[in-house]
Sequence to fold (254 residues):
Amino acid sequence: MTDQITGSKTPGRRMEGRRVIVTGAASGIGRATARLMAREGAKLALFDINEAGLSPVAKETGGIAILCNQTDSAAVDAAVAKAVTALGGLDGLVNTAGIIISGNLAATTDDIWRRVVETNLFGPFYLCRATMPHLQKTKGATVVNLASGAALVPNSGSLSYAASKGGIVGMTKSLAMTCAPNVRVNAIAPGSVNTPLITDRNGGKIPAGTAERYALKRVAEPEEIADAILFLSCVESSFVTGSTLAVDGGRTFH
Ligand SMILES: NC(=O)c1ccc[n+]([C@@H]2O[C@H](COP(=O)([O-])OP(=O)(O)OC[C@H]3O[C@@H](n4cnc5c(N)ncnc54)[C@H](O)[C@@H]3O)[C@@H](O)[C@H]2O)c1
Fold:
């Protein structure tokens, strides 16, 4: 063991003492991650633009709620500074906040492209840049970025989304090289997950035919993605960096 490898593998203590920012914590995968990390002993700063959704998660997990629109780099810098002061340092970042807007090439306006790329790629970049000086002070610090299966297999229906998530995969690899050895940087590429990201566009339901695309013949629950995020955020993944882990019930076989 070296001092790069710190932390507990004991269930219930895997995030003990670790100070983590989770973005997109008001809903879906971010909320499930906040709940799991709190149960594993993390101290949390929870970022989102949705105040009504964020407050109950903060109350439940004991985390600090920080309203932050991640498309605004100055707002991200201020929010990270606030989080680091409140937590007394930083050991982890989970970049979960994101949006999707459907549209193939012909249907993708400048505005759609800009909104999706600003949220899904500029946002995580701003967060990585603002947190890295703090993460570098901790041996065994981690970043987990949310990519998507849309970055790994052809997806003609959401061009801007696929492009933004492809950017996440590339950014993750580059940061893994440049931020080592103190900070490990990984990504997760989920398949379809039962969250408002996909159900809001379909009357609160998973679109018909979605489950059949996966070997396991179902979509994921957000807690199943949170389990993978926990793995990449704790000592159990101490020799994993630069990876994009597909958590997709058998679709991309990545
Ligand atoms: N649900 C899926 O099927 C699926 C599949 C693959 C990847 N993902 C990715 O997982 C991540 C989480 O998605 P989810 O399914 O939990 O979605 P969700 O819609 O349930 O949650 C996303 C959260 O991000 C927040 N957010 C959006 N724009 C923001 C901004 N500008 N600043 C700050 N917060 C903002 C929203 O308020 C929301 O709370 C996203 O990056 C998404 O692309 C989801």
Residues 24, 26-30, 48-50, 53, 68-71, 96-99, 119, 123, 146, 148, 190, 192-193, 195-198, 222 surround nicotinamide-adenine-dinucleotide (CB under 6 Å). The domain at 19-247 is CATH 3.40.50.720 (Rossmann fold).
